[in-house]
Description:
Order of helices and strands: HHHHHH
Number of helices: 6
Shape: elongated
Number of strands: 0
Radius of gyration: 40 Å
Helix content: over 70%
Distance between the termini: 129 Å
Largest sheet: none
Amino acid sequence: xxxxxxxxxxxxxxxxxxxxxxxxxxxxxxxxxxxxxxxxxxxxxxxxxxxxxxxxxxxxxxxxxxxxxxxxxxxxxxxxxxxxxxxxxxxxxxxxxxxxxxxxxxxxxxxxxxxxxxxxxxxxxxxxxxxx
Length: 132
């Protein structure tokens, strides 16, 4: 047996390492080429301005519709985020009804209602007289 057959030679190891470096550099080059192609595919501001006329009513309407839909989406997202899930509507309704519980037989309440009605009637008559 020869020594070269049983042991790997330094040149074989160097060739394998060199092949690995070449493969890595090919990958880097391919990535750079892909990035350059993506950058080339993205239009510049000047190209976009040349392509889209700001006086195009149809385009402006479409943009406004998209923007309005997005704003609505974001508003709904914020509202649902801020609204607690455990609100008991019946409990709130009951509390409001208790706060608004008005005794209709209260004489002070009747006086207040009469005053409001008289003020409104006077306003209405003055308005009618002024327009004739």
